[in-house]
Amino acid sequence: MSSRTSTISDPAAPESLYVKRRKIQVRDITGRFRKLKWQVLVLLLAIYYIVPWLRWDRGPNAPSQAVLVDFPARKFYFFFIEIWPQEVYYLTGILIMMAIGLFGITATIGRVWCGFACPQTVWTDLFMAVERFVEGDRNARLKLDQAPMSVNKALRRIAKHILWLLIALATGGAWVFYFADAPTLAVELAHFQASTAAYATIGLLTLTTYSFAGLAREQICTYACPYSRFQAAMLDEHSIVVTYRTDRGEPRGKASRVATPAAPAAKLGDCIDCAACVTVCPTGIDIRNGQQLECINCGLCIDACDHVMDKVDRPRGLIALDTLANLEQRRTGVDPNPKLKIWRPRVFVYMALWLGVGLVMLVTLLTRPNLEMSVQRDRNPLFVTLSDGGVRNGYTFHLINKMHVERQAVLSVEGLPGARIYVLNLGEKPEPTLTLGPDAVTAERVFVTVPRGALTADSTDFRFVLRDPASGDEAHYGGIFRGPGK
Ligand code: SF4
Ligand code: SF4
Q: Can you give the pTM of this predicted structure?
């Protein structure tokens, strides 16, 4: 896999690590891949802009936004799923599944994520469409670039940047709706009553969208994105990638292919060296030079070359989706395998890993308890000896009720004979009933007192039991009771 290199004027001089950016003016094209890219773009943008406005009824004590990252409550809502802060491992699991999925897809059908679904690709495509609308297609833009500044040029440039900024603003504006109730936040934003964080986030995303999709474009994919760097490790010779059929195209040339007595036809391949595949490439590379890390597998060069082949009356597919194994076979004159080898051991390994992680997450999600507690024992003092001879330990409870209704739960102690429980604001009871707020964490201060004679060591294992008699839900916590010893 090669990469773009700089031109060295002096062979004795060391090669520069800096490559001056070459402005890429992409030509518009129609075809299968272009159509698919538009369809994916519309679908993904629709999802991005519509999802925060979807409602999901969770009852009176929970937000009714289908997808919400609730920072103040430290919760993540995704339709019927609610992730609590202590369940952040679900998000880790989702990220692991996304990474494995990406590896599997890349091993199978190459960088299809980069070419079609990556936000950088989607927004760059959108920004390029705006540029084409305002300044015209490639030739018109090249002309405009070279023309001296004029009213027409200035107006077109200003219009383009204003439209880019508006799209960038809409992008940042939509993002913040994922973090608050969308209709409420929209009203607050319109009346300049939203939080500073909301305006700052919109400003930052407006700036990054504008500079990444409008100004930096392919530079992000080539230099900033780590994925393009390690994709070579994920591809193998059977991965489906965009390839140029050297055996069919070479030697390339524009020379006349029709023999005349004066000029016998040159023996040329199918490539007429028209550079149509280069001018439509969003990363500005020439696929005829072989696999390059800049190639995002978007397939636009296939569309361009197919048009050319139609015009010169040659079969389509001079540039096509194929495997490097087939390409090598063709090069050595062996007929390639017409069937692409999609199902390979590494693809099965990726699938098994993906399904395994997904299954573990699903089972834990469906079987997770609705009632939980976490307990911290007081460290200072470790225990207090009361005037009646009893020994008291203090605890701070965090009781988690994941149901959207208030619940009553009974607290008891097992393993400490004669233990009495004192709950701050409730007083001392053998088995106090605690009120748990709906979909909330309730904090309680609890003291357990044990008769001195019941303790046989300075540390006794016991457990708290929290039980909701109405639902039968139970939570346990194993703890240590400290005392003065024998
Ligand atoms: S579009 Fe096809 S014919 Fe034209 S230069 Fe590219 S490979 Fe050759
Ligand atoms: S070489 Fe072809 S597939 Fe690769 S990025 Fe350029 S246009 Fe897309």
A: 0.83
Model pLDDT for residues 303-357, shown as the tens digit of each residue: 999 999 999 999 999 999 999 888 888 888 777 776 777 888 989 999 999 999 9
Tell the residue nearest (CA) to atom 7 of ligand 2.
281
- The residue written with tokens 């705006």 in the block is 130
Looking at the CA of residue 294, tell me the nearest atom of ligand 2: 5
Residue ID of nearest Cα to ligand 1 atom 7: 271
Domain assignment of residue 161, given as a range: 32-232
Which residue's CA is minimally distant from atom 6 of ligand 2?
281
Tell me how far the alpha carbon of residue 244 lies from the centroid of ligand 1, in angstroms: 9
Same structural domain, 312 and 443? no
Atom of ligand 2 nearest to the CA of 296: 5
The rounded Å distance from CA 319 to ligand 2 centre is: 10
Return the axis-axis angle of helices 151-176 and 32-50, rounded to nearest 10°.
50
pLDDT, tens digit, for every residue of 15-27? 777 778 888 999 9
Kindly state the DSSP code that residue 312 receives in the 8-state scheme: T
| CA distance between the termini of the chain | 75
- State the average pLDDT over residues 280-291: 94
Domain boundary among 183, 209, 232: 232
